[in-house]
Amino acid sequence: MVIDLTGEVVPCAYFHFSSGDQNLGNTNTRTIAEIWNGPSYRELRDRHVRSDFDGHPCGACVAPRLMNGRFPDFEWGAGFRHEEGHCHIAQIPEHFWQKHREHAEEIAVLEDGVPLTVPASVHDDIRKHGGGRYSIWHGSLYLSSIDGTSPVTNGRNYELRRGADAARIAQVHSNTRSGSNLALSYQEFCTGQVVLNSKPSKISFIETSDCNIDCPSCSQNEVRLVGVRHRPSTGTDVRNSIPFLQELIWHGGEPFLIPEFREFLKNYEITQNPNLSFGFMSNGTMITAAEAERLKKFDRFNVTISVDSFVRETYERMRAGAKYDRVMESLNRLLKMQNWPQRKVTVAMIIGKTNILDLAFNVNYAIENEIALMLNPIIHYPLTDRLNAFQDFKRDTVGWSEVFEETIDLVASASKRRERSLRFLDATGAVKELQRMYKAAEARHERCRRITVRVDDPHGSLRKMHSPGIAFQSRNQQAGSYAPIRDGVSSYDVLIPYDDAFESLDIQFYPNLYEGAGWTGVGRVESRDIQASANRVIDIAIPRYDAPVRPRNILYLKSNRSNALHVEDRRLIFDAYQELAFREQRAGFGMRRDSATEPSSSLRSKAAPDCDDVQDDAAQRELNARRGWFSFLVNYFRPYEVAGYGRDQ
Prior knowledge:
This protein has 649 residues and is an alpha/beta fold.
């Protein structure tokens, strides 16, 4: 269960990439328990039981493309997963494997202290005959229990030994609330139950947008601006679920700014839930040696640090306010603690126009420094970094094709050498998905028409704007074209791909391209008009403008806690932004039209509005939401398990 900052609940981190606005409930109106067995979750389970994904987001899941053709398995949190027949596979703890890999034939495997006696077995014999056969193969243990029971659930201890050195494969502690919940969940999973008695075993919780740095491309910039937060009971509900969880992923903003997060890290005792894998995503700026030391109490953790480039200049441009050297110091401190698969440390890297030419360097750096790397394409926000929005595709993508080919070759070569970073997380699928997106955009831009935008700035407004621009946006948000506008330049050419699927393009002017909801409508151009005209000319006049105050993110910390907006529908965020813009206009800031009127959909109060508090114009609200292009990423593409792990080589 993923709980977004808006309160929206989705079943996994991949769901938003194919679901549009669909969700399974909202914690601002329902409890976790009510959503878990609510109508949307029941329909989801029923669809999976019947393998009926027609018209359902799961039918367009991106997980197989990013995970090298595999869907995530049922997650026990144990070291073993079922492969085929009697065979189960576990990744050997990395510290032990690196120490003894040259003498793998001397490694013994014990089941509850009793050595198994059929080592170096052929994998097909393990699958067909079981009987305690096992094989150690390139860092993985292929094993069958002596009596044919599953090592995931039989409660036995499995240990590897060589000389005096030993390593245990992580097991489920069955005599605990989380262990019992996992067993019940698996039983209900196998029997195709739709209404469950088990509770969620994994929660990913995005608690706040509070942050201490000012990344221009952050998907949370606008929810932070309008003060979106959870109602207080949601955090309590999540924390009350911890004894039943196999994994908790706790997100911000920056989680080390959350008092409850720091309190949990300080006071939590592993005896409260020995099955818990604790995870979080951090920008790495606040992880001191003392904070890192507290992680050692967890037998299993899953820590992700956001580093958008290993090139210092690129990183500090994308992560404004963060210092590369300090973050790398924190990352290296954590890397010394990792011991995959029990203790995982991963770098999450968003990929956009700003850093895409660093891709080969970054992947090679991760390989050479044994860093697990997740690559996450920017496809929603902001226009300036999206990999599916361009001014002139050929000009904007110079060097992209070559960097994709170079990166794919790097990963393929590293895979042949069995590099450790790819053992942790195989980036092959993500790199190929980036290349696929590029080729799809290339095909879409094979036929284009030029639109010339002539800009008149009689009031000198452009020099007061942060990052002004003009955008041509399709109604279904599948594509976009734009041009940044600069003071002193009066004409801009935009190459628009025309496609019969697009009925029209909305023309939008942005005083700041990094505030996706802050556009002003200029007009609309029909697809047939684009196709009919070799060079269409559009004239726009910039009204008076004075820049509104935009404090640094850290200054929102206290104000947003005391004046929170709890939303029941993400479309209300757009309405809240429009209300903010109207208040700024009345105070003399923003776009100063001669006849400014209050937006047609506005919130009467920032504090926990009810749906009845918004003027009920469903069509306009839907249009506003789409124009706002607020398809938030609820999570990065986080590794549910080692991609490709367990494959025979």
